[in-house]
Amino acid sequence: MVLTKIGYGLSGLVGAGIIVIGARFLVAPRVAAAAYGITTEQGSPASDPYLAAKGVRDIASGVVVMVLLAAGKPHVLGRYLVATSIIPMGDAIIVLRGNGPKATAYGVHGTTAAVMLGTAALLLSGPE
Predict the structure, then answer these.
(1) What's the domain count of the chain?
(2) Which of 9, 46, 67, 84 is deepest in the core (most CB within 10 A)?
(3) Mean pLDDT score across all residues of the chain
(4) Which long-range contacts (CB under 8 A, 24 or more apart) does 40-44 make?
């Protein structure tokens, strides 16, 4: 029960964090892209549709975490976190393939995936 509560708390932080990151891609796309580990061309518009799409994807992913938190089904939330940990793993690969900073690929995206998987383990460890 204690592990589930910790898992819920961490899930809330993950969900809120990804919503904030998504909003940043909509409000300040070049800054958000740099923090992600990629750079945009100086001549490209700040409202690059790919960056906006990433922002919307991130906001939606965070909202789903909040919906699953409200549902009170730790195993469902844990499974969701396992499945969606593919996103930060893919993000790390994108940064590495784009010759972005390895520190960002591993430190930001790799750590995010690890936190999501660790949180999922806490949520899945209790009775169903």
Answers:
(1) 1
(2) 84
(3) 93
(4) none
Domain around 21? 2-124
Question: What are the C-alpha distances in Å from 29 to residues 16, 84, 114?
Answer: 18, 22, 25
> Per the structure block, which two tokens stand in for 17?
């964090």
Question: Which pair of structure tokens corresponds to residue 35?
Answer: 């923090």
Across 61-76, b (16+ Cβ under 10 Å) vs e yields: bbeebeebbeeeebee
Concatenate the DSSP letters of all residues of 2-33 into one string.
Answer: HHHHHHHHHHHHHHHHHHHHHHHHHHSHHHHH
Tokens at residue 127, please?
A: 């009775």
**Segment 46-93, tens digit of pLDDT:** 567 888 999 999 999 999 999 999 999 999 999 999 999 999 999 999
pLDDT of residue 43: 58
* C-alpha–C-alpha distance, residues 60 and 107, integer Å: 23
Cα separation, 43 vs 45, in Å, equals: 6
45 membership: H or E segment, kind and range:
none
pTM of the model: 0.89
Confidence of residue 45 (pLDDT cuts 50, 70, 90): low
